[in-house]
Specification:
- The longest helix has 16 residues.
- By secondary structure, this protein is mostly beta strands.
- The strands form 7 sheets. The protein has a 7-stranded mixed beta sheet with strand order 18-17-19-25-24-21-22, with no helix packed on it. A 4-stranded mixed beta sheet has the order 6-5-7-8.
- It contains 3 helices and 25 strands.
- A hairpin with a 3-residue loop joins strand 14 and strand 15.
Length: 378
């Protein structure tokens, strides 16, 4: 991707092509599926739900695999009112988590295996869509009168008839500020719209829209230019034709589904993000007996009687290379593939600092640590 511009209408040279059409995916059985467009998913979650965070991790793994033309946003309904309104008013959501693929063309409620989500992506992406194409460009604006994102969208209609639909540009935080109960951030957390309007494009015609995402207007007064490396704009074109779908398949919670015809994205700053590292077990304020939780204390430390597994979560936009486990800064184990875990079965009595270090494939590093009291006489 490259983009050269001078703002305020002097010069705009745009070379960007983020819409995906005609991609071919080959399965393990040798079958191929042609994708007519990138698939877009809106994942409705409650941030305290373990199933919600599990679905987010599955979708993010599919996204990072690059095996499918696929983008998604996480609608954290208990944290962001605009996300809640989208899920309740437009999708008549039954409960969380629920995935609405391509505007409701396919719906998956609850936690399923990864294959189910891949199948829904394939089913949505292989259907026939109008020959319509989006390009999107997002730029940070900071001056005395305004702070935020100026977003431009270019729609090209290659059909012999007029196209009508809704153009929405979602702004999302790649590593979301909203996390699950283990303090692991959700991905592509929805932060509001830069553009959300009905459009019509003449046969063989073009359409231009521009909009502005104002962080303070959505309650994000603290956002600055440096935060934009973690922001993505996702432009989605929804067809104007309503079709009946169900938020609780096969026949409960009906809603009008408006299928997605084209998707495009732009990163404000196309940079490599640092990894995320979290110790998921042991949990602070918990007593363990040979790895089994037996009581909660409410303190800021975990206590282990006997050996215990130190479990970690690590994630990155370019992939994790390795995760290291330390006790009092002494390296104990290096793990190169998930699930990241180390069994502490050495003799130990006392208070120790446990740390994990995650390295991405670019060499960036992230740490997480906690204090553990252990009584293990082996």
């Amino acid at each position: 991707m490259s983009k050269i511009y001078v703002f305020a209408g002097v010069v705009l040279l745009m070379m960007i092509s983020n819409s995906i059409a005609g991609a071919v995916i080959e399965t393990d059985e040798g079958d191929t599926t042609s994708f007519t467009h990138a698939v877009f998913c809106e994942l409705g979650v409650d941030s305290s739900s373990q199933e919600s965070s599990a679905v987010d991790r599955i979708l993010h793994s599919i996204y990072l695999s690059n095996d499918y033309p696929f983008y998604y946003v996480t609608m954290t309904t208990d944290k962001f009112e605009v996300a809640k309104q989208r899920m309740e008013n437009d999708y008549n959501i039954y409960d969380y988590p629920t995935c609405f693929f391509d505007g409701g063309k396919e719906v998956l409620y609850g936690l399923q295996s990864g294959e189910y989500y891949e199948d829904e992506i394939t089913a949505g992406g292989s259907r026939r869509v109008p020959d319509i194409h989006i390009e999107v460009l997002a730029n940070w604006i900071q001056c005395p009168c305004q702070v935020g994102l100026f977003v431009e969208a270019y729609v090209t209609n290659s059909e012999a008839e007029q196209y009508k639909g809704r153009l929405a540009v979602y702004i999302a935080e790649i590593n979301s500020r909203w996390a699950d109960s283990n303090d692991i951030p959700y991905h592509f957390g929805f932060m509001g719209y830069a553009i959300n309007e009905q459009i019509s494009v003449d046969a063989y015609g073009e359409h231009y829209s521009s909009g502005y995402w104002n962080p303070p207007a959505y309650g994000f007064e603290d956002m600055l230019e440096r935060d934009m490396k973690n922001i993505i704009a996702i432009a989605v074109l929804f067809n104007e034709t309503p079709r009946t779908s169900y938020a609780y398949p096969p026949d409960k919670n009906p809603f009008n589904a408006y299928y997605v015809d084209s998707v495009a994205t732009d990163r404000v700053f196309d940079v490599d993000l640092p990894p995320v590292a979290k110790i998921t077990s042991p949990v602070d304020g918990t007593i363990y007996f040979f790895g089994r939780e037996i009581a909660r204390t409410g303190s800021n430390k975990a206590i282990s009687i006997g050996k215990i597994s130190i479990d970690a979560y690590a994630d990155d936009d370019v992939g994790i290379k390795k995760v290291e486990f330390y006790v009092d800064d002494e390296l104990k184990q290096t793990d190169n593939a998930p699930p990241y875990s180390w069994l502490w079965d050495e003799s130990a009595i006392g208070s120790y600092d446990v740390k994990v270090s995650a390295y991405d494939k670019s060499g960036n590093k992230a740490n997480d640590d906690k204090n553990l009291i252990i009584f293990n006489l082996q």
